[in-house]
Amino acid sequence: MTKDADGEAKITRRAVLGAAAAFGLAGVSGAALWRSGEAEARDFPIRLSEDQWRRRLTPAQFAILRKKATERPFTSPLLHEKRKGKFLCAGCALPLFPSSTKYDSRTGWPSFWQPLPGAIGTGTDIDLGYPRTEVHCARCGGHLGHVFDDGPKPTGKRYCINGGALSFAAG
Prior knowledge:
The chain has about 170 residues and is an alpha+beta fold. It has one domain (about 1-170): Metal Binding Protein, Guanine Nucleotide Exchange Factor, Chain A (Beta Complex). The protein has helices spanning about 15-20, 50-55, 60-65; strands spanning about 1-5, 10, 85-90, 95-100, 100-105, 110, 120-125, 130-135, 145-150, 160, 165-170. Strand 5 and strand 6 (about 110) form a beta hairpin. The longest helix has 10 residues, at about 15-20. The chain starts with a strand and ends with a strand.
């Protein structure tokens, strides 16, 4: 949303399209979900070329982890995963979230109230026209999702994570 010359709020086409994508009106492979450019180039321990990432990941994983796409809600098999274990980065297998912090946020994406220590990093994302806190893997920089301040106790956080950015290791 932006303001016009009179200070009145107006909704931009980009905000509408971004919201449509976020609510699943386009598939993860749809062009509307692809962001410009690869994940920000930072000094992550694992750094691969775009071609190397494409060979390593499925098309859906590549779209999410490297292009910041969002999967459609309620489509991830990990949404209903209830076994004891850890959720790992699908790009580099870094353990990210213990199953004990997963909960049903009723949003359609796997949600957690706390990551493992040192597992994630954050940045500011303005793709929908307003700032959100993006969550990425601390080892490979892969885009995971976003964190919000509407989660359960004890942290009050909701790490809303694309299931396609994750794998699961039971145990």
